[in-house]
């Protein structure tokens, strides 16, 4: 389950108030990440059946947009954060298989016409795309503004450009708290644990007994990936 469902649950008015925390110029001009704690062979081991669109090079190309991601704190914390991100996006995309939302009946529902900028790409153009299923016109605008990319007019970039898709996932991970109280990045860096990242993505839809099976699915993915990275998963795995 993804951001698109969170926004449906909390209402468009609340979702429209999402604040972008990273200026577009800062993100767009960031230097490429020098290294990543996940190697290409480990990435391939994590996602043996992935869609080729979700490439390792696309991910590493995107890392420069948020240089603090998987690059803050100890080596253990860096690996735990990388694992937490990859576990959640694996859950969202069926193991990095799906690029776009599969329920096409939802596509016309993601245009908030109360926004002054409207839906210039069309009222059915803002369906879920990418590793954390970016959806709604106001989220395409917010992510695009932060990344220095015009996603409001060109939402298809998220399904056609691997690095752009990964950047939108990193935008949410690093700057948005969703229905939680902190960003997923903050949760991992500040020792709140994997469970808090689930809360930041889906809140009570899954947490606090909302859907224990979905929570366990995310935990299973996280434990598998931390095993591949050879790092302890830490505590507070559930929400």
From TrEMBL:
Lineage top rank: taxon: Bacteria
Source species: Amycolatopsis carbonis
Cleaved signal peptide residues: 1-30
UniProt-listed PANTHER family: CHITINASE 12 (PTHR22595:SF79), CHITINASE-RELATED (PTHR22595)
CDD domains linked to this entry: chitinase_GH19
Residue ranges of every copy of the Glycoside hydrolase family 19 catalytic domain listed in the record: 39-239
A GO molecular function held by the record: chitinase activity
Disulfide bonds listed in the record: 111-119, 207-239
Transmembrane segments: none
InterPro entries according to UniProt: Glyco_hydro_19, Glyco_hydro_19_cat, Lysozyme-like_dom_sf
Protein name in UniProt: Chitinase
Entry annotation: catalytic residues: 92 (proton donor)
Keywords from the UniProt entry: Disulfide bond, Plant defense, Signal
Record-linked Pfam families: Glyco_hydro_19
GO biological process: carbohydrate metabolic process; cell wall macromolecule catabolic process; chitin catabolic process; defense response to fungus
């Amino acid at each position: 389950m993804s951001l698109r469902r969170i926004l449906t649950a909390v209402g468009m008015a609340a979702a429209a108030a999402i604040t972008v925390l990273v200026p577009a110029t800062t993100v767009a001009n960031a230097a490429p990440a020098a290294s990543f704690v996940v190697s290409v062979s480990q990435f391939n081991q994590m996602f043996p059946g992935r869609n080729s669109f979700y490439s390792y090079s696309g991910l590493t190309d995107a890392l420069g947009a948020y240089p603090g991601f998987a690059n803050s704190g100890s080596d253990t914390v860096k690996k735990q954060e990388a694992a937490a991100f990859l576990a959640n996006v694996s859950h969202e995309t069926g193991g990095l298989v799906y690029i776009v939302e599969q329920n096409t009946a939802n596509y016309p529902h993601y245009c908030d016409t109360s926004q002054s900028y409207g839906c210039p790409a069309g009222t059915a153009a803002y369906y879920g795309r990418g590793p954390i299923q970016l959806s709604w016109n106001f989220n395409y605008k917010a992510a695009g503004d932060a990344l220095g990319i015009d996603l409001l007019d060109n939402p298809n970039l998220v399904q056609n450009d691997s690095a752009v898709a990964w950047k939108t996932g990193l935008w949410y991970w690093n700057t948005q708290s969703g229905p939680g109280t902190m960003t997923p990045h903050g949760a991992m860096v500040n020792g709140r644990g994997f469970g808090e990242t689930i809360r930041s993505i889906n809140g009570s839809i899954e947490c606090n007994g909302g859907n224990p099976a979905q929570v366990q699915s995310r935990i299973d993915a996280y434990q598998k990936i931390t095993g591949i990275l050879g790092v302890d998963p830490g505590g507070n795995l559930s929400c």
